[in-house]
Amino acid sequence: ILLKLGGYGLIRISPLLNPHPSNLMFPIIILALWGILMTSSICLRQTDLKALIAYSSVSHMGLVTAAILVQTPWGLTGAMTLMIAHGLTSSALFALANTNYERTHTRTLLLVRGLQLAFPLMSTWWLLTNLTNMAMPPTINLLGELFIISTLFNWSPPTIIITGIGTLITATYSLYMFLMTQRGSISTQFRLLPPTHTREHLTTALHLLPLGLLIMKPALISGLFT
Q1: What is the pTM of this model?
Q2: In this predicted structure, which of 15-24, 60-69, 172-181 has the lowest mean pLDDT?
Q3: Burial of 157: CB neighbours in 10 Å, binned 0-12, 13-18, 19+
Q4: Is 177 inside a domain boundary?
Q5: 48: helix, coil or strand?
Q6: How many structural domains comprise the chain?
Q7: What residues are paired with 108 via a beta bridge?
Q8: Would 226 be classed as within a structural domain?
Q9: DSSP per-residue string spanning 83-128
């Protein structure tokens, strides 16, 4: 919530700083793009599940920050779209991580492997949420990232290298998170785990359903600044 409030604050404040903010904000945009690579790389070495999800949120906000500071209609549209999309995605990941923690009482990735054998339906939710996190079609996340990457490329073509590498690393740590928690052999201490509840499946479905439906009418959120 604080990240999204920060993004809203940037949208409201950035036009007041300079009639041509992309010149004044050049160093900050570069730092935001560099932050995408740094936070994405940090995700690859995390052993704590919730820390991995938190750093993932910061990585996505680097894209949002850069798009807002360029101050174009496409950039603002993409920033708003990605903030809404990632707000639902990140919340779903935290809910799934809490579901794991309530049963295993640990957030260490190496200790919670093989949960697909115990909770096959919950593993499906993990797969769909991670695919959404890496902006796979037809989710609204992809639309937001395409707007932002196009905006940054139009502002400076070399940025496609940084955003491309960031997208690749995002896909890598998303798959890493899924494989580390769901695949492999389950530990003997987790053989007798309480089953999942309907409320947990409903919570996850209520996160992912809007992401699937919004792509059918993206103007509800992407038409705000056009």
Answers
A1: 0.88
A2: 15-24
A3: exposed
A4: yes
A5: strand
A6: 1
A7: 48
A8: no
A9: HHHHHHHHHHHHHHHHHHHHHHS--BGGGSTTHHHH-HHHHHHHHH
